[in-house]
Amino acid sequence: MNDGSNKEVGKRITRREFVARLGRGASACALVGVSAALFARGDEQELVWQIDPFKCTQCGLCQTECVLDQSAVRCAHDFQMCGYCKFCFGFFRDDALELTEGAENQACPTGAITRKFIEDPYYEYTIDRDLCIACGKCVKGCNQFGNGSLYLQVQQDICLNCSECAISAACPANAFVRVPADRPYFVKHLGPDELARSYPMR
What is the 3-state secondary structure (H, E, C) of the chain? Predict the structure, then answer.
């Protein structure tokens, strides 16, 4: 009897065992692939939507294009840039009849900006975020005739962070950008050059 032939027969496996081994191999490969994908995803930095205030043209689409009933975009105020003007074009209409808080004199259609006397001739302007509808009228006035301290920003606690932002798709100035979730807001007084260094994806 040939012992070598008996050893050869002993090495043979059935079709069922072969398929089972193949399945185990495929499962192992799949597990490695999923683990690698999760590891890679963990390395990726989470990004959120934001508006570049130096690209924004206050077109008004932030108010109407958001998937939410009330836009996730609201007006922000950089007090370091504000001139505390008595006649603030962000607060008053450019054709205001008098410098009073009457609704007919205000640029904001919802009265979201409040005006507080500090000392002559200075006034402080604050935004009621709940009343703001992101129409951009105050921002346009402040940018055209003032220091530009008012600007639109996506409010991260309201935004759904859609993979494709509807406002971004409609924005004619490409002002919507993706920024790191741990630094989701632009500080306008830093200027465009500093923002470009801090947020290279702009």
Answer: CCHHHHHHHHHCCCHHHHHHHHHHHHHHHHHHHHHHHHHHHHHCCCEEEEECCCCCCCCCHHHHHCCCCCCCEEEEECCCCCCCCCCCCCCECCCCCCCCCCHHHECCCCCCEEEEEEECCEEEEEECCCCCCCCCHHHHHHHHHCCCCEEEEECCCCCCCCCCCHHHHHCCCCCEEEEECCCCCCCHHHHHHHHHHHCCCC
